[in-house]
Design goal:
The protein is an alpha+beta fold and 171 residues long. It is 23% helix and 37% strand. The protein contains 2 helices and 9 strands. The longest helix is centred in the N-terminal third of the chain and has 34 residues.
Length: 171
């Protein structure tokens, strides 16, 4: 014969434990969401106005040194030199790698950036951040990326495509 009082008590304890678990999980998720939502977004430093000249595309420094297993940032700036609103799109490719055994896709995966197109008004500029994450065990040496900035419409832009290089030295 089954003890009904014991069975009811057991099922009530189970339900209470499940409810407490769900509440704790929900509060934990809300806490994590709040912490990451309020995390500071580190903006790219402003480029001193005297450095611009007549360049539409430039890096703050086009050479960056990163140790194996480390991450660093390169700041990149785009300026609309045209007389009207222009649309820009960023892309990257590999020009040189330290080891021919590495695929271009592998070396390109170390570089993270936002490829989403954006618009700039006449005379406006925008700072962009490239995150460079060099894996542990990466071959030491120099890697070179070609950063391409496509600009349209052509009648607003001096050139349809601007190119600049980002040089990565892995130490």
């Amino acid at each position: 014969m089954i003890n009904k009082k014991g069975a009811i008590e057991f099922s009530m304890q189970t339900i209470i434990i499940i409810v407490i678990g769900v509440v704790v999980l929900s509060l934990g998720l809300l806490f994590v969401k709040k912490v990451f939502h309020n995390a500071p977004n580190i903006p790219a430093p402003d480029l001193p106005s005297g450095m611009w000249g007549e360049e539409a595309v430039m890096f703050r420094s086009n050479t960056i040194e990163v140790k194996q297993g480390d991450t660093d940032k390169a700041f990149f700036y785009v300026r609309n030199l045209g007389s009207d609103i222009a649309n820009f799109k960023i892309s990257a490719s590999v020009l040189k790698k330290a080891s021919p055994k590495l695929s271009d896709e592998k070396v390109l995966s170390w570089l993270t950036y936002n490829p989403k197109p954006f618009s700039l008004g006449s005379g406006k500029d925008r700072a962009l951040t490239f995150l460079i994450d060099v894996p542990k065990g990466a071959n030491l040496g120099t890697y070179m990326y070609d950063i391409q900035v496509d600009c349209e419409p052509a009648n607003v832009c001096d050139e349809e495509t601007y190119n600049t290089e980002l040089i990565l030295k892995v130490k």
